[in-house]
Design brief:
- The chain has 275 residues and is mainly beta.
- Helices cover 5% and strands 55% of the residues.
- Strand 1 (38-43) and strand 2 form a beta hairpin.
- It starts with 15 loop residues before the first helix and ends with a strand.
């Protein structure tokens, strides 16, 4: 799913190697070997749409109402994203990579309502083949306490999908677990699978836009085991997916339940592709 509204969440990025979203032109291509690319996602409930523009299989622009993102490549990897609201630049994200192609770090400069200018720096370590740790420092110019706020995120991967996410905040020697969340997936193609370089910045997409836009396959459920807001404990979501002839989603029905199992929200999304 996609919310058609961006989330102001700190970026915690994963790597291409552990996401395993390597393109297989034979398996993922449509007509005449042309890769299947998502061109529009519509929130049926609100009527809002997100559109995608490409140069070949390189993503160059996404538009979501008054919000727009421009993508810049160096070779086959995305090295910068500039985000605009009503044509005003609100965020710049710069990506760096190791020689082996894995993500090395990201720097974000931006502005947020009520907070003003902020900067974020993320670095990444890979303690096991299935684990990625992101350490992040963020600093807001308008905070009285100008000490950087440290965050850490641990991602557990399986077959190209994130199955567990653990967020913690650090204040001095104190560490507070903020979020612990588990996920399940289907075996079909994620709508963003064939966008060149997109796999390498999936965590940026995950934390900035929507969790459903991550992974090799499609999320079918999640469960929130821990949250700093007690009212959010035990929340679950289920996603019912209808597929097209190329095994990409064409409709996703999202249903959200509170800790007592009572449905409190549902959203339907449709997906259009270049073929």
């Amino acid at each position: 799913m996609i919310t058609c509204k961006r989330k102001n969440i700190a970026f915690k990025l994963l790597t291409a190697a552990l996401f395993g979203l390597h393109l297989n032109c034979n398996a993922q291509a449509g007509m005449k070997g042309i890769p299947v690319l998502v061109t529009q996602i519509t929130n049926i409930s609100s009527g809002n749409s997100v559109t995608f523009k490409y140069n070949g299989n390189k993503l160059i622009e996404t538009t979501d109402g008054e919000l727009k993102s421009l993508y810049q490549y160096t070779g086959n990897v995305i090295t910068q994203i500039k985000e605009y609201e009503n044509d005003e630049l609100i965020k710049t994200a710069d990506f760096t990579y190791h020689k082996n192609g894995t993500l090395k770090g990201i720097r974000v400069d931006g502005t947020r309502e009520n907070y003003g200018h902020y900067t974020e720096e993320q670095t990444f370590t890979y303690p096991t083949p299935s684990t990625i740790v992101c350490t992040e420092f963020e600093l807001y110019d308008n905070y009285e306490d100008q000490k950087p706020h440290q965050l850490s995120t641990v991602y557990t991967m399986n077959k190209g999908n994130m199955i567990l996410k653990k967020n913690s905040s650090h204040e001095g020697k104190s560490v507070e677990l903020e979020v612990l969340k588990s996920y399940t997936y289907d075996k079909n193609n994620n709508p963003y699978l064939n966008i060149l370089g997109y796999d390498k910045i999936m965590p940026y997409i995950l934390e900035s836009y929507d969790e459903f836009m991550t992974g090799k396959n499609n999320m079918t459920s999640y469960k929130l085991f821990q949250h700093k807001q007690p009212a959010d404990l035990g929340l679950t979501a289920n996603f019912t997916i209808t597929y097209n002839k190329n095994n990409f989603p064409e409709k996703i029905v999202s249903k959200y339940y509170n800790k007592d199992g009572v449905l409190y929200d549902h959203i339907t999304y449709t997906y259009n592709y270049n073929q």
